[in-house]
Amino acid sequence: QVQLVESGGGLVQAGGFLRLSCAASGNIFRSYAIAWYRQAPGKQREAVAIISAGGAIVKYADSVKGRFTISRDNAENTAYLEMNSLEPEDTAVYFCNTLRTANWATPLGPWGQGTQVTVSS
Fold first, then answer.
1. Taking Cα atoms as reference points, which of 63, 92, 95, 91 lies closest to residue 81?
2. Is the dihedral of CA 28, 103, 108, 110 positive or negative?
3. With pLDDT > 70 as the criterion, what percentage of the chain qualifies?
4. In whole angstroms, what is the distance from residue 110 CA to residue 88 CA?
5. What's the gap between Cα 31 and its chain centre?
6. 94: burial class by Cβ within 10 Å (0-12, 13-18, 19+)?
7. Which of 31, 89, 102, 108 is the most buried (most CB within 10 A)?
C-alpha cells in the first residue's frame, strides 16, 4: 500500500497561485494513477484532478478545468497540483489518493491529513 502525504497549502488571495505536493513512500507509486480531491466545510469530498500512472492521461473536474494542472514525477515519487487563478470557492482541505486507473472511481488507499487551502476574497 502506498502512503501519501500532502503539503503546500496555505492562505492566498483570490487570483493567486499555490502548488500542492503529494509525496509517496515505497517504490510502487508509479504503478498507480493519482487523484487530487478536496473537501470544503459542510460539503462532500470531490475529486478535482486525475493523472494516469505514466502521466499521459489527465482529467479535471469542470470547476477547475483551465486553472489547475496535475502532474507527477515518478522518479521522485511525488505528484503535484498547480492551482492558478484561485477563487474563494477553492477553499478546502486537499487530499491525494491512489486509483487503479485514470478514471473517476473509488480511491484505493486510506485518507491522509490533507493540506488546507484558504483563498481570501
1. 95
2. positive
3. 100
4. 28
5. 17
6. buried
7. 102
Question: CA torsion angle for 16, 10, 7, 102 (degrees, to 10)?
Answer: -50
The cell for 116 is 488546507
Query: Amino acid identity, residue 48?
Result: V
Which residue shows C-alpha cell 493523472? 51
The residue assigned the cell 492566498 is 12
> Among 83-87, 88-92, 106-110, where is mean pLDDT lowest?
106-110
Assigned C-alpha cell, 94: 486537499
What residues does 58 pair with on adjacent strands? 51
Measure the N-to-C terminal CA separation of the chain; round to a whole number of Å: 39
Q: How far apart are CA 114 and CA 120, in angstroms?
A: 19
**Cell representation of residue 74:** 515518478
